[in-house]
Amino acid sequence: MTIIAEELARLEEIVRRLESDDVELDAALALFEEGVSRLRAARERLLAAELQVQAVLGEAGGDLRTADLDG
Amino acid sequence: MSLSIPSLAIAPTDAVWSVSELTTAAKRVVEGGLMPVWVRGEVVGCKAWPSGHWYFTLRDAASQVRCSMWRLDAQRHGKPPADGTEVFALCRPVIYEAKGEFQLKVSRIIPTAAIGRQQQELERVKGLLQKDGLFDLARKRPLPEYASAIAVVTSTAGAAVRDIITVSRKRWPSARLFVLNARVQGDGAVDELVRALRVVNRLEVDLCILARGGGDKEDLAAFNTEAVCRALAEVRVPTISAVGHEIDISFTDLVADVRAATPSAAAELALADRREVLRQLDDLAARLGAGLGGRTRFATERLERTSDRMQAAVAALLQRNQHQLERLGAQLDALSPLRVLDRGYAVPLAPDGRVLKRRAEFLPGEPFRLRVADGNVPARVEPE
């Protein structure tokens, strides 16, 4: 599972728990804080990223060589 | 306008259709129900118009049908086929309304003679791959929902890689693309494609796109070879084949987990759309806020309920205590000496108020008082 999939799954879980009736208030506040910071981090990660394109050039001593490819 | 022809009409005036209504209805029936099909027939009277469009007739022993081929499609074929050429024509049946004619709109024609040997080889490879289950739908793997690293096997000289990069940058800029260059047609193409597909298995990627550059000459041969198909089937991550055209299908399209019509479409299938995920995050943020709001409201209500309950508890306590006080009062009352006096007893009291309990305390001639229920009675000890 990729990072964003995990993030979305965790956020979904947080929201579900907040929406349920069996969470104590202090636990709810903790969930809310976690949710807010995760949301912010996920949004920043999505917005800040820049596509990486690498050409796989071939093998050198068993390792694959790569080089940035101009998009 | 209804598509059903009124079969119960007795007189013409019951339900009359205009010619154009009927041809439009026929057009809908014909064009709505039939996908592009390959038709085999003999070309007759092919005429290339100055506009670039071709018009000809396809016929066999029993029937014939008028065909048109638009400029862009005709251009790819060079010269119009000579009379009597037997061809496979990829076409879409249409109704030409102005003439009420059934026609074929042709997009490709291939002389059957050119197909022969090539076709035999294709059939052989197809049989082998089919026998080994490479086309089986059961072995298709789903694409990962949020792929972040993608291998792209294609010619870096072609347009495919540009298209994939452009779409990826727009949809999911946090992705990493690993481009493996391979010739996609001509000599060496098969070997290079096979080698590149094997290298994919050494990369940390979520999926693999096999693409043929747009704008390349129409040559799918390498993608129909047994070697390339088997190498594709051995790729350990889910695969997308974006090799054919919208209507051409290569064997790699059938072997890959998913087929895409174009390299751009492949990138769209491969990567999630960042904007959609951002919208999803917005939605989660709203629910998070509402969730906490609901939670605090719930807590407030509970506090209110608790305070109500406390008040009720105190009231109940007070009431219970009051009963107890009343009971205690009653008990005290029963113990009161006054109640004893009521029953006819009397208490002798010395002038100083002491209760006289012993015979010795009564001195002859001394006054005292008797406390009875309703008051005091003066008394004196008789001399012995």
Written overview of the protein:
- The complex is a heterodimer of chains A (71) and B (384).
- Chain A is of the alpha+beta class and 71 residues long.
- Chain A has one domain.
- Helices cover 58% and strands 21% of the residues of chain A.
- Chain A has two helices and two strands; from the N terminus they run ααββ.
- In chain A, helix 1 (3-19) runs antiparallel to helix 2.
- The termini of chain B are far apart.
- The radius of gyration of chain B is 52 Å and the shape is elongated.
- Chain B is built from ten helices and 13 strands.
- Chain B is of the alpha/beta class and 384 residues long.
- The model of chain B has no long low-confidence stretch (mean pLDDT 85).
- The interface between A and B is large, with 37 and 43 residues.
- Strand 1 (52-60) of chain A pairs parallel with strand 7 of chain B.
Key features?
heterodimer; A: 71 residues; alpha+beta; two-stranded antiparallel ribbon; 2 helices; 21% strand; elongated; B: 384 residues; alpha/beta; OB fold (Dihydrolipoamide Acetyltransferase, E2P); Rossmann fold; five-stranded mixed barrel; five-stranded parallel beta sheet; 10 helices; 13 strands; 22% strand
Quick take:
The complex is a heterodimer of chains A (71) and B (384). Chain A is of the alpha+beta class and 71 residues long.
Helical coverage of chain B, percent range: 40-55%
> Which regions of chain A contain 5 or more consecutive residues with pLDDT less than 50?
none
- What is the count of helical runs of chain B? 10
Oligomer class: heterodimer
Strand content of chain A: 15-25%
* Rg over alpha carbons of chain B: 52 Å
User: What integer is the average pLDDT of chain B?
Assistant: 85
Number of domains of chain B: 4
Q: Any idea what the CATH architecture of the largest domain in chain B is?
A: 3-Layer(aba) Sandwich
Task: Give the N-to-C terminal Cα separation of chain B.
Answer: 141 Å
Spatial extent as radius of gyration of chain A: 20 Å
The coarse overall form of chain A would be: elongated
Order of helices and strands of chain A: HHEE
Counting H and I runs of at least 4 residues, what is the number of helices of chain A?
2
Strand order of the largest sheet of chain A: 1-2
Sequence of secondary-structure elements of chain B: HEEEHEEHEHEHEHEHEHHHEEE
Structural class of chain A: alpha+beta
Task: Say how many strands of chain A there are.
Answer: 2
Largest interface: A-B, 37 and 43 residues
Give the total of beta strands of chain B: 13
